[in-house]
Queue: 2 jobs
Job 1
Amino acid sequence: MQQKLRGCRASKNREEVLKVLEHQSCPVTAEEIYNLVKEEIPTVSLSTIYRIIEKLISLEIVNKATTLDDNRARYELVRETHKHYMICTKCRKMIPIDCCPIEEFENKVAVETGFNITGHKFELYGECKACAEKSKKA
Amino acid sequence: MQQKLRGCRASKNREEVLKVLEHQSCPVTAEEIYNLVKEEIPTVSLSTIYRIIEKLISLEIVNKATTLDDNRARYELVRETHKHYMICTKCRKMIPIDCCPIEEFENKVAVETGFNITGHKFELYGECKACAEKSKKA
DNA sequence: TTTGTTATTGCAAATGATTTGCATTTGCAT
DNA sequence: ATGCAAATGCAAATCATTTGCAATAACAAA
């Protein structure tokens, strides 16, 4: 991680944001990051979190993602293999999906359309097991 | 369209919103709808547009979509065959893609995970032809 | 270690999209 | 025509995110 931070000062806040992000298995909101960082550094402010995230995004260390009908952005570390998620429309839980059906499709579309494709976004929506149980009982 | 509107009153504003949406080939923002409706009904207010959209979504006549690092929601009519888009990261233009690689994948994931999948969202990002030309010249 | 430059920070206020309260108007069933 | 609930316009509220500014901290150079 560190080697990418050229031109930046190693602030305590940023170190802590990175530590928090490393422990996440699903994308988190700025406020969630804020609350987790605050446990270690109580004086941190939310705007600082936003500025750190902004910088990490510009360094391509962090990804921003928005989710259908949730109007807050979520962030996650850029990893070697990117992930997709199933999102429960009831409890909003995000469950990672292992594989990605898009990559080969991208090539096909690129050839057919001449569009220079650089990325994609893909999410599945539905009801998770736990919520399905609940609605059966009710 | 009309038959779905049970329990609702046929207001002029809603008729006009539906008419506007029928003429779109790509999802539009609330403000874009507002401006188009205002051409016919100058007294309409933006909050009314938001309320009409909300109702149309709950009736499953309209879909809401958010797009990568664009913080305004976009709306489109639910159609028999759903569409996906390529989005140019430079000019923000949305170009419809004909086919959908997700549907068969959905079934596979459903079986493997027990997740009851009801829908998905999928977008491609890249540079459109026009923007590619421009950056070559520069 | 001290010093100077500049990135980083906290705070409060600004912004932009969307939502809501409320009093008024309208559609439609009776 | 009458009454009631849905729909509306307006202004104010809300929520996530951004920004201005003055104070602080990191780090390179002396």
Job 2
Amino acid sequence: MDRRQQKTRAAIFSAFSALLSRKRYDKITVQDIIDEANVGRTTFYAHFQTKDDLLKETCTDIFEHVISGSLMMEGSHDFSLSGGSPQAVLTHILYHLRDSKKNIIGILSCESGDLFLQYFKTYLNRLLSQWIPQPQQPPLSGVPREFLIDHVSGSFVNMVQWWIRNNLRQAPEELSGYFWAVTGPILEGQPSNIQSL
Amino acid sequence: MDRRQQKTRAAIFSAFSALLSRKRYDKITVQDIIDEANVGRTTFYAHFQTKDDLLKETCTDIFEHVISGSLMMEGSHDFSLSGGSPQAVLTHILYHLRDSKKNIIGILSCESGDLFLQYFKTYLNRLLSQWIPQPQQPPLSGVPREFLIDHVSGSFVNMVQWWIRNNLRQAPEELSGYFWAVTGPILEGQPSNIQSL
DNA sequence: TATGTTATCATACATATTGTTCTATATTGA
DNA sequence: TCAATATAGAACAATATGTATGATAACATA
């Protein structure tokens, strides 16, 4: 790939991200993007087929980075814990979200944030499906594992939304504590009050 | 209000709902809507300022109906339980969603479902804020009440999405049971294992 | 450095969507 | 019956999309 292409791509991603923090996704025009990025119309369409395409690539780029940056890759396409506990990994992800140079929070804060969080959740589902066992005891024993996985990743994404609405007032560790308080029994496999019988 | 206006409004709502089950919201044009509804362009704009306006009114219409249909209204703008337990009310809401003549599931199933569920969550937040007490005991005692409310309503909406993705395979009662399994400790106020101190 | 390749820009263009304005017609409520 | 008004249809300016063209500049390589 040409140096020019890399530069252009970066300029477009950056312009797109900047626009998203000011405008709703579906109100952003291609003209807005190419003006902000200082690239020609033809150039934009040489890199991305449509605006939706740009969106999709942006999401993949960001979340693949966030999650794999908090984990070690193993095998061809699976994630696994890199020694840390689930709690530590989740805290790490929160730090990543907050401190990324890519202005992730800016993107998630925008009026189209839901769109991105949907992609985010897809990644989390893959991640969590490795951590969550089929529970053996009530009250969770009758609940399908897929439901629990979806519930936990949905809760995480929901928490991030809440965090952003509150201007990131909580420290990642604190937030991680909240998350543990509401999902601990699921992630631990079982609540700590194992009352045999 | 004129009979004609009522009829026109109904035709537009119906056409919009039908289109949503085939097409993504932002790919639907005003032309599509007025063709499907068999109304003139002028007429559409006499009823709704923009397409977004139509969306908003559609959501308000649906969710106000779903929630108030499962509750008794009380006071000016607050909800309260109509005798039933939270569990019973939630089950009722699930029935409502599934069996409504307004094809709610059709709308929520569409590619823009997230958009609607966002509105749904707003209503649920109002509802749940009346049921959820500030917890007094670990592990929930240090967690802000607003977080818990948002977590529970987010989990409900998330569950509905999951339900739809699975083609409504579970009965509302069964689903309600899952929900209780993962949020019970919060809705009950405290987990049942009250270990004083 | 010289050279062929290719990414870029600016412009123009056909097409499609939006929201407004106008007039004529049809329906309504009294 | 009749005045009020909701509607349809068409035309319209303004804006957005995606494509095509030719000229220019930056690149990789030898």
